[in-house]
Amino acid sequence: MSYQFITSAKLPTRHGEFDIHIFENEAGQEHVMLTVGLPIDRQSAPTDTPPIPLVRIHSECLTGDAFSSLKCDCGPQLNAAMHAIQKSGCGAILYLRQEGRGIGLTNKIRAYALQDQGHDTLDANLILGLPADARIYDMCKPMLDHVGVDKVRLITNNPNKLAYLVEHGIEVVERVPLLVGVNDENASYLATKRDRMGHLLDNEF
Ligand SMILES: Nc1nc2c(ncn2[C@@H]2O[C@H](COP(=O)(O)OP(=O)(O)OP(=O)(O)O)[C@@H](O)[C@H]2O)c(=O)[nH]1
Ligand SMILES: [Zn+2]
């Protein structure tokens, strides 16, 4: 699949002002990138060491990002990442339109119905005959290339995202862990990511 840059504009938010960039693949699927301080202006202070952009690869979660769901940690993670990137002055949010770990909104809600019956987040996908995690990350490299980023500090607990970037020639100088928005409703979801999905979490939930 190839990805094309379409357009960009300013986006003021309550965290500060971002540039918003839209990308599209051949199937017409849109992905979004919010940036601050990118591309890095190497002319203005050529002798300074350039900053390493702080980057968050975030998969769409309508229920968490827009509806403040307590079933996951997505909404607080998105807000914390936007805040941290603004504070650092240089970075990007890659907002990937792969809802429900790539199975789509309808299937995610089907999985939630199974979770209501006591299944965990991983088994719910498997019972539906769907992969535990169907996401791809091949849009990330062209999106980062667009703003000249080849080195990042990556905000994640997900080893798949680290592996993708490293395999595609993007240097991950640092992994920045992100644990926010833990509550009684999402504790078992986080424990399943830690115990059954290999996420880099060593906390008790
Ligand atoms: N199938 C399914 N998807 C879920 C469930 N809860 C959250 N999601 C999806 O999981 C994805 C969350 O992904 P990210 O925010 O990229 O985070 P992550 O892969 O958990 O890794 P981090 O970078 O460590 O946060 C979103 O697409 C959510 O819609 C669930 O119970 N079932
Ligand atoms: Zn979520």
Tell me how many strands there are.
7
Record the strand order, biggest sheet.
1-2-3-5-4-6-7
Question: Residue share in helices?
Answer: 25-40%
Shape: globular
**Order of SSEs, N→C?**
EEEEHHEHHHEHEH
CATH topology descriptor = Rossmann fold
Structural class: alpha/beta
Proper CATH architecture? 3-Layer(aba) Sandwich
Q: Uncertain regions: pLDDT < 50 for 5+ in a row? A: none
CATH class: Alpha Beta
- In angstroms, what separates the terminal alpha carbons? 38 Å
Rg: 17 Å
State the helix count.
Answer: 7
Please, how many domains? 1
Biggest beta sheet attributes: 7 strands, mixed
List key phrases describing it.
7-stranded mixed sheet; binds zinc ion; globular; 205 residues; alpha/beta; 7 helices
What are the SSEs and their pairings?
Layout: E1 3-13, E2 16-25, E3 30-36, E4 54-59, H1 62-66, H2 74-88, E5 91-96, H3 105-116, H4 121-127, H5 140-146, E6 151-155, H6 159-167, E7 171-176, H7 187-196
Parallel strand pairs: 4-5, 4-6, 6-7
Antiparallel strand pairs: 1-2, 2-3, 3-5
Helix pairs in contact: 3-4
Bound molecules: guanosine-5'-triphosphate and zinc ion.
Summarize it.
The protein is α/β, with parallel strands linked by helices. Helices cover 32% and strands 25% of the residues.
